[in-house]
Amino acid sequence: MAELFDENEGYTVTARKWRPRVFDDVTSQEFITKTLRNAIKNSRISHAYLFCGPRGVGKTTVARLLAMSLNCTDLQPNGEPCNKCDSCREIINDNRNHPDVFEIDGASNRNIEDVRELKEKVKYGPVRSKFKIFIIDEVHMLTGASFNALLKTLEEPPPYVVFIFATTSPEKVPLTILGRCQKFDFKRLTIKEIESRLKFISEEEKIKIDDESLFFIAKKGDGSMRDAQGLFDMSAAYCDNNITFDKLKTFFNLAESDVYFHITDLIKSKDGNTLLNYFDELMSKGYDMQIFLDGLTGHYRNLLVSCSAGDTSLILESENVKQKYKDYLDRFTEIEIINSLKLILQTEYTFKYSSNQRTLIEALLIELIKYTDTRDLSQILDDLKELKSGSKGEVSTFTAGIKTAPKSVSSAGSVTPVNKAPSEKTNDITEKTVTAVLDISAESQNLNSHWISIKDQIKSERKWVYSIIKDTTFEQDEKSNYVIRVDDTSYELVDGYKDYLSGKISKYFGTPLAVNLMKSSEFVSSYVQNKAADPPSEENESDNYERLRSILIKDFNAKEIN
Ligand SMILES: [Zn+2]
Question: What is the domain class of 383-556 according to CATH?
Answer without folding.
Answer: alpha beta
